[in-house]
Amino acid sequence: MEELKVNGTGFDKKDGQKVKVGAVSYLNTKPLLFGFEKGMMKDEVEIMIDHPGNIATALLNGTIDIGLVPVAILPQMNNYSIVSDYGIAADGAVASVCLFSEVPLEQIEIILLDYQSRTSVELVQYLFKNYWKKEVIFKNAADDFLHHISGTTAAVVIGDRAFEQRAISSFIFDLGEAWKLHTGLPFVFAAWVSNKLIDEQFLTAFNKANQFGLQHLQEVVLANPYELFDLYRYYTQNIQYELNDASLKGMKLFLDWCRR
């Protein structure tokens, strides 16, 4: 399998300077951020929270040093390293990355693409070409795109808004489940990526901070009350946080598609 770590330039950290870390504002990142919220690495990292598209842009332009970013941006980076054993993946239905429609799949003509996403935008195009084998029109969506899911116009919706849309749309096509059915592999939506080399001591502590929330999931759920979906089920059955060999193999397959 292709090595996914690529050498970058070193991080020349001055005394007292913190590593700038960007993370996604969705519920699925809460377990990975819980340790940082509890004060782990508070003297070493500065956390920025935003939606995936903005975090990706910040990593690409060097505003941050490490980002939990959509993996679809990796082919755009000249130098990068995947710097953690943890990320956002799914080995089947993910629940929060779906195609929503008022009609069956075969009747869909137009698909609106969530402006907050990069990976799911590439993924839905992959699935229509290789799995569903159906031609549709893809359109980049504006802020109010959820109101335009009607008739033969469907939309890809990600994150917390997908939970809200689950209670509205007649047809839900889970992109994580479709990928698994087609490839037999997990799908990696986001990974911790650095645009420069970070020292091993920092990375060891960073992994432990990620792991902390996964070891205290009940506390994470209690800290984030949510009525639309069972978060403990979501964190344990839908999201796969540890990036194993199978998920990295799935990520390589997807990135090969993105490069083409």
Q: Structural class of the helices, strands and pairings?
A: alpha/beta
> Uncertain segments of ≥5 residues (pLDDT<50)?
1-12
What's the architecture of the largest domain in CATH terms? 3-Layer(aba) Sandwich
Major pleated sheet = 6 strands, mixed
Please give a structural write-up.
The chain is α/β, with parallel strands linked by helices and 260 residues long. The protein has 2 domains: 9-87 and 187-259, Periplasmic binding protein-like II (D-Maltodextrin-Binding Protein, domain 2, 3-Layer(aba) Sandwich), CATH 3.40.190; 97-183, Periplasmic binding protein-like II (D-Maltodextrin-Binding Protein, domain 2, 3-Layer(aba) Sandwich). It is 35% helix and 25% strand. The protein has helices spanning 30-37, 52-60, 119-130, 160-166, 175-183, 200-214, 217-223, 231-238, 245-259, and strands at residues 9-10, 19-24, 45-50, 66-70, 81-90, 97-101, 110-113, 137-140, 153-158, 171-174, 187-194, 196-197, 240-242. α1 (30-37) packs across α6 (200-214) and α3 (119-130) packs across α5 (175-183). The two termini are 18 Å apart.
Key traits:
five-stranded mixed beta sheet; D-Maltodextrin-Binding Protein, domain 2; six-stranded mixed beta sheet; globular; alpha/beta; disordered N terminus; 9 helices; 260 residues; single chain; 2 domains
Topology readout:
Elements: E1 9-10, E2 19-24, H1 30-37, E3 45-50, H2 52-60, E4 66-70, E5 81-90, E6 97-101, E7 110-113, H3 119-130, E8 137-140, E9 153-158, H4 160-166, E10 171-174, H5 175-183, E11 187-194, E12 196-197, H6 200-214, H7 217-223, H8 231-238, E13 240-242, H9 245-259
Parallel strand pairs: 1-12, 2-3, 2-4, 7-8, 7-9
Antiparallel strand pairs: 4-11, 5-11, 5-13, 6-9, 6-10
Helix pairs in contact: 1-6, 3-5
